[in-house]
Amino acid sequence: MKINLTVPPALHSRKFVYYWTGLFVSVMGSMMSTTAMLWHLRQLSDQPIVVSGIGLAKFFPILIFAPFGGVAADTFNRRKILFITQTTMALTALTLGLLTWAGITQVWHIYALSMVQAIAISFDLPARQSLVPNLVTRPLYPSAFSLQSIASNTGNILGPAIGGLVIGYLGIHFAYLFNAFSYGAVILALLLIGSIPQEVKAPSQRGMRYSLESIREGVRFIVRQPVILSSMVLDFIATFFSSALTLLPFLAQDVLHVNEIGYGWLAAGQSIGAMFVGLVISQRLHIRRQGRLLLGSVMVYGLATAILGFTRTFPFAMLALVLIGAGDAVSTIIRNTVRQMQTPDYLRGRMVSINQIFFQGGPQLGEIEAGVVAQAFNTPIAIISGGVACIAGAAVIAWRWPHLRNYDGSEEHLEVVVQPAPVPGQLPGGSK
């Protein structure tokens, strides 16, 4: 089959190009830092549970703050929120870099700073994801999210690959410091973008957006949208059982017997497959049979994860990771497109924040599960069992939610108005 590559439609939007470029640089820095952090923890401890425990440090801040991050993204200027969150994450990365440079970093330092990062991400991700539909028109959503996937995955390739070289030749602290400066690319992009239109439901309801009722409003919307709800559950199951990939430093050292540079390429392998898939999908304005394609891609993701657990050589491990990335890219692009198309702008921040609990809670808790299994048995068994469970989970969701299985992407989202219950002591509509 011949594929004619053209300029993706979303790149005709100047503001989106700024956002896309800043995202690429930032992701590259973040992945360099993540690669360094896992390797760093491996050097500080030979216990898999210590390395995987980083997930628990990130999960609770996300669980607590993500819903409020969604409310903030629907209430305040999303661009201004990103200025604050990106600056916070830059300072956190700088602190970790300086501590490591001084040679005084301990495991609890990494855990504590990761918790601060997670709090910032709880506000950053809803604002950032909700911003994309404000930069392009609705027909360009699939192209925009595909390009976002390309930027993320290209950064995910270069970040670990370069990170491995930086760790090996310059030291772990340089990876952390580069990450700190990479956040400046997003801040510069936001300055170049300028003002962005943003829909707010109704001025009379703004006062209620800080309350728990505002969060419940977002939850009620998701519960009443079976396609959105089932895709979030699928997110959680897939990421939970496939989070054994966080044990990659142990697989690299103890099974494949490669050094920091080899580990860097292994960490980049997943994104190589994702990048090529994202490039192909970015050419398309419409994807048919989205539900079945989504479920199938998750099953491929799980199968490739199981295969990775059986590999004992570097080339086959790379091939498995490329397949994992390809399945993950298809899944991510479709999930993001479906949710954004089906959600009104005034609810997007809360939708993204609730999804953040599923999408990031899954891998963070899954990392603990993977660490426990690896501790009790070994790393390959943890990876294999995770992949098999991922396939089984996707099959159950396909059976349980026929709405998702039969979704073809042709429906338009409904402007669903979820009326919040009145707050005691307030008149209907609330007061600021």
Give an account of the 3D structure.
The protein has helices at 14-44, 48-52, 54-75, 78-101, 107-131, 141-169, 172-193, 212-223, 226-241, 248-255, 260-281, 290-310, 314-342, 345-376, 379-400, 402-405. α9 runs parallel beside α14 and α9 (226-241) packs antiparallel against α15 (379-400). Mean pLDDT is 76; it is low at 202-210 and 412-432. The chain is mainly α. It has a single domain (9-194, 207-405), classed as Growth Hormone, Chain: A. The protein is globular and about 50 Å long. Helix content is 75%, strand content 0%.
Concise summary:
By secondary structure, this protein is mainly α. The chain is built from 16 helices and no strands.
Indicate the CATH topology: Growth Hormone, Chain: A
Q: What is the highest CATH level, the class? A: Mainly Alpha
**Silhouette:** globular
Beta-strand percentage range: under 5%
Radius of gyration: 21 Å
Structural class: mainly alpha
Key terms:
globular; Growth Hormone, Chain: A; about 425 residues; 16 helices; mainly alpha
Task: Compile the SSE list and pairings.
Layout: H1 14-44, H2 48-52, H3 54-75, H4 78-101, H5 107-131, H6 141-169, H7 172-193, H8 212-223, H9 226-241, H10 248-255, H11 260-281, H12 290-310, H13 314-342, H14 345-376, H15 379-400, H16 402-405
